[in-house]
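Feature request, filed as a ticket because there's no other form

It would be nice if the structure record came with a short human-readable summary line next to the tokens. Right now we just get the raw output. Example of a typical job, pasted below so the devs can see what we mean:
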Amino acid sequence: MQAVCIHRYGGPEEFVLEEVPDPVPGEGEILVRLLATSVNPIDYKMRSGAAKERFPVQFPAILGRDLSGIVESIGPGVTQFKPGEKVLALAWHTYAELVTVKADDVTHLPDGVDPVAAAALPLVSLTGDQLVRRAAKVHAGKTVLVTGALGSVGRAAIHSARKAGATVLAGVRKTQIEQALGLNANDVVALDDENALKKLPPLDAVADTIGGEIATKLIAKVKNSGMYGSVVGPPKNAQQFPAVTVAAMMAVPDPSKVREFADDVRDGKFRLPIRTELPLTETAEAHRMAEHGGGSQGKILLF
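Raw output as currently delivered:
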């Protein structure tokens, strides 16, 4: 098969399209022919070496986490899928024509959902949902502020928090206020406006997707016994607020939740903006765009 590989850490120019052996599904695995994948921040952080402490790369490496495709074959012990079915999953090594993945991590793609656009969903939907539910412990009656609300993970977090019955504040920059009014949040807060921060009510939780200096300000707004969930690590001053529980998280597979998001896309209840779609041969250009374009512009898909 053809795959996009890297042989060392570096910039997008390190990507090489090359022939590699076809993967073979093992016990409990399926082999999926790629319809599409997407570019996530973890991809270019792994490529550059910025994430090597958490996610070391063994070279040569095939990057990529999102998978939308068609079942090519099944391994021993797999009964819930059959060849020809369209599926969706959080996987590994998806910048390739063929991908093996644990069957237990896969869900069927619902009818009525564009299989290419669906590739935007797995990692960001699970990250946003688990940030809200597992890290920030959001449930009905709670008030949560989601930072980076216009990013894909932020949008997923807002969606999950609203479905949980929480009051949701969308945190954005002042220049993004008008755009953020289109989100399904109860209110919008300009995080780079000191007056707006001073007016914030005490929060039950923060679901943080951006970190940095704003994190050090927001943790002070969380109630005692409140939660500060983050996908980018704890605020630098977290030790100054021992009554706030800080929880870092990393997404884990949950096919039922991926299916739930896909169903919501089909039903018009959830939408992720798509910035562009590029062939897998243009992975380097996709990474350049993703690194310098900003997440609020939408997902970049590879097919």
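Something like this underneath would help us a lot:
The first strand starts at residue 2 and ends at 6.
The two ends are 15 Å apart (CA to CA).
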